[in-house]
Amino acid sequence: MRRSGNIRWVTVGVAGAALLALVTLLFGCASADASTEATRVRVGYFPNVTHAQALIGLSRGDFQQALGPGVKTLEKRFNAGPAVIEALFAGELDLAYVGPSPAINGYVNSGGEALRIIAGSASGGAALVVRKDAGIHSASDLKGKRIASPQLGNSQDVALRWYLKQEGFKTKDRGGSVTVLPAKNPDIFTLFRDRRIDGAWVPEPWASRLIAEAGGELFLDERELWPEGEFANTILIARSGFLKRNPNLVKRWLAAHVEVTTWLNGHPQEAQSLVIRVIHRLTGVSLNPAIVADSFDRLTFTHDPIAASISQVAERNHTLGFFTSKPTVAGITDLNPLNAVLREQALPEVR
């Protein structure tokens, strides 16, 4: 175990925008990636049900086995996506499971240099939950309320702010009546339980936990806002320099990612039990099996990044003022390694 800056890395065995100048320096530095294949893969993820591939693949050793004995897997856990992008900008991550909004922000703020989306991970799995006693029965009742999100600019934060805008509300920081309070997911749970917020737009399992353990009720499943209920909640990204210099390692990781996704969808009961054990080991929280089952019901695990939803999220970021000009994200995805893996596994390619 070692420390790199404020990053705490764990060696796994088998068993906000950064400055463009910093990114340019990082990607122009020869020491960021060796000219030969890397001997380590540093991956970021959240201890959330929406990151089940990372939880399962790392705990069972699927990724380590796919990479081979000469490559170490180093993992770093995060609360929300903007912190992931900061770590990637600093050269402290090679791969990461993250939401689309932070990935888009990272791509745009680096002039398209920092990262690429290389696969999907989860669709669905986010919801607006309100307190039963908060008097919120329709969108109009959100006036004057305090609603939390996991972090400013993360995927749920953008979804919340977009929804409020569509319903005719301004946030309090822009002269409106609704307070949006970014906070870490565990803190959101405490604030909700203590009746210091009226609702929260959060990923799973936090939505299900608020309902089952903190007196909440489901107000809106985010799937209701998307065509056919499909949108990218979690995607897999790669640092561009790592992807360019280590195509074989990326392909091996993707092979394991696809296999774990297939296993997840084919063995939901086993997957839920394993996710419960891993989250308990990582956070000390023992999730009720019924909560995890509810979380899975709101989720679809997929290797498809659902590119159409990513483009819409980029437009929403611009409309909400996160970008001063309309972002161009046409080159944000690189699905060639994924499709090569899918061909090898006799699965349909992602178009």
CATH architecture of the largest domain: 3-Layer(aba) Sandwich
Strand order of the largest sheet: 1-2-4-3-5-12-6-13
Backbone shape:
globular
Q: Major beta sheet, specifics?
A: 8 strands, mixed
Round the Cα radius of gyration to an integer and report it. 19 Å
Number of domains: 2
Low-confidence stretches: 1-34
- Please state the average pLDDT score: 90
State which percent range the strand residues make up: 15-25%
What is the succession of H and E elements?
EEHEHHEHEHEEEHEHEHEEHHHHEHH
Class by SSE composition: alpha/beta
- Tell me roughly what share of residues is in helical segments: 40-55%
Counting H and I runs of at least 4 residues, what is the number of helices? Answer: 14
> N-to-C terminal Cα separation, in Å?
40 Å
CATH topology of the largest domain: D-Maltodextrin-Binding Protein, domain 2
CATH class of the largest domain: Alpha Beta
Name the assembly state: single chain
Q: Could you name the CATH homologous superfamily of the largest domain? A: Periplasmic binding protein-like II
**Count of strand segments:** 13
Summarize the structure.
The protein starts with a strand and ends in a 7-residue tail after the last helix.
What features would you describe in this structure?
- There is one protein chain.
- The protein is of the alpha/beta class.
- It folds into two domains: 2-124 and 230-344, D-Maltodextrin-Binding Protein, domain 2, CATH 3.40.190; 126-228, Periplasmic binding protein-like II (D-Maltodextrin-Binding Protein, domain 2), CATH 3.40.190.10.
- The protein is built from 14 helices and 13 strands.
- The strands form two sheets. It has an eight-stranded mixed sheet, sandwiched between helices. Strands 9-8-10-7-11 form a five-stranded mixed sheet, sandwiched between helices.
- Helix 5 (100-109) crosses helix 13.
